Amino acid sequence: MSSPETVLVTGGVGFVGSHAVEYYAEQGAEVTALDNLSRIDTLETADESRNTAAYNWNYISENYPQVELIEGDIRDQEHLEEVVEGHDAIVHTAGQVAVTASIQEPRTDFEVNALGTFNVLEAARKADSDPAVVLASTNKVYGDNVNEIPVREQKTRYQYDDPEYENGIPESLSIDDCEHTPYGTSKLSADLYVQDYADRDEVDAAAFRMSCIYGARQFGNEDQGWVAHFAISTLRDEPLTIFGDGKQVRDVLYVKDLIRAYDAFLSNPDGKPAVYNIGGGTENTTSLVEFLDMLEDQTGARTDVSFDDWREGDQKVYVSDISRARNELDWEPQVDFETGIRRFVDWYANR
């Protein structure tokens, strides 16, 4: 099967969304980017120099003038249905992205992530063009169950101490009987609606439960996007706060590899599972303190670091088991972490 020819990207000038826009524009598809340009308003520690949406709106306008940019909101069902019609694929990345913001404003978090995704699915169900949908979901759907897995502490990292999880967290890990944040709950609701619409054959759809995604055009901060936040703070010699002891581990995935996974589903959704854990897997993991060492090796720079208490919803270790994506989508990461960070540093220096 070939890639879709008419693609709508919600959150199209966000970090992940802008890369989906770029990917499909490069493929020659007809692309629409829908965004309400609100991201910087929802992140309390962001400043204007890290306004992802403004930067990416300009980037897409200049480099891909054929892309239609629409300012709009996924909570506006009527407008959304008008925009969706005529597309054969939707990459749904629009969302409230920060755990901290979800705790402060849980209603907004719910309306954007849960109701907004429901609106996208309903618009897709009603559209004559019958678009397939991928949702940017999150590993936070597993809540505190991740922290029930025993870990052992090593010099610079924690790692799972249970052979059942030597390949990482599978899609079958329970989502029940544990603490969740409002963010994890709203994204889980969206995720389950995607699976329901897919299972009832209302929409070809899949939820991708993402681990840490990083790459060019990401302006991270301590609320969200920690890889970019650490790299930019190091390059700008701005002090960093690590919540916890810095030994927490994540698998990391270069953003262009993520978009390839989305496309693998959208290009041939028939008979495919509706949920995937997606990340760099066991071969692309780092702890926070190990990443600071890598940055110093690559840039010669090291910024001041202080430590603070663990935050609500933090996980000591999260590594994705990506075997389902490998087997069902014939996909695997192509960009290793060291190469990806070199690309990020080069982009930031030359932006």
From TrEMBL:
This is NAD-dependent epimerase/dehydratase family protein. Residues 7-279 form the NAD-dependent epimerase/dehydratase domain. Signal peptide: none annotated. It comes from the Archaea. It comes from Halonotius terrestris. Belongs to the NAD(P)-dependent epimerase/dehydratase family. InterPro entries: Epimerase_deHydtase, NAD(P)-bd_dom_sf.
